[in-house]
Model the fold of this input.
Amino acid sequence: MSKLARPRRTERKKVGTHGSHRVTMHYTGTLLIMSRLFFVILLSGVLVGCAHKQPPQRINITMKKYEFVPAEVHIKRGQRVLFVVTSADTQHGFHVEAFGINEPVKKGQTAEVEFESDRAGTFPMNCSIICGAMHDDMVGKIVVE
Done:
């Protein structure tokens, strides 16, 4: 007579015993539940983080002998700002000492400076590269409200 093959049991990992009962755990189901939970938490964190960050306010500034256009810029405190600075005639330097900004701006090129206005007040902007006889008179204002 031939021996009958025994059916295979599903593999289980013995975790521990409780009294006379064996405590077993199926890893596949647990891992699946944990991975789905991790994915939901990760996705919700990414979406919440994206919802709070708005793109910066874009402000175009043109520098030319011996002025800023516009001469006065108004922004809100705590707002992210992107200054897009161009030069109409020669090389200038976009300088706002209060915010640590000092960016050279060449004729025909654009300089982009992004920052967040963290304090209220009126702050001077000036040219940091000598651009002619009236260079010292080249000033503008950033008003943070």
Q: What stands out?
A: The chain has two domains: 13-52, 57-144. The two ends are 96 Å apart (CA to CA). Residues 57-144 form a domain with the Immunoglobulin-like fold (CATH 2.60.40.420).
